[in-house]
Amino acid sequence: MIRRANEQRVEKKEHLRGGEGYVTLQHLLEPGESCGKCKMIARITIEPGNTIGDHAHNPDAELCYLLEGELTITDGGEEHVMHPGDAWICGEGNRHCTMNKSDAPAVFLGIVIE
Prior knowledge:
The protein has no helices and ten strands. It is globular, with a radius of gyration of 14 Å. The protein has strands spanning 9-14, 22-29, 38-46, 51-56, 61-68, 71-75, 78-82, 87-90, 95-99, 106-113. It is 0% helix and 56% strand. 21% of the residues are buried.
C-alpha cells in the first residue's frame, strides 16, 4: 500500500491530552492501514509555546523520533531536551508530556503501537 503526501489527512488538535495550544498531525497512514499494529502513525508539528499534556500509555506504547527543532519532554518525572535524531518511547503505564519551549516549530514522528 502506498499513501501519497497529498492523500494524507491533516488535522489540528487543540488542547491535546489537556495540553496548551494546538498540534498539527499529518496522518501518514490511518489506523486501519497498519495491518492492525498501530493506532497512530503521524508527523506531528508543535508550534512554540504549545504542548501535549501529561498522559500514560497502557497497554499501547508510543515511539517518537524528533525530525526538526527542539522539544522538552517529561519522562519518568524528569525533563529532557530533545534534538533532531533523538528518539524516545513511553509504555507500560508510564507517563510523558511534550513541550515546545523553543522559538521555532518542532516536528516529530509519532507512532502509537498496539
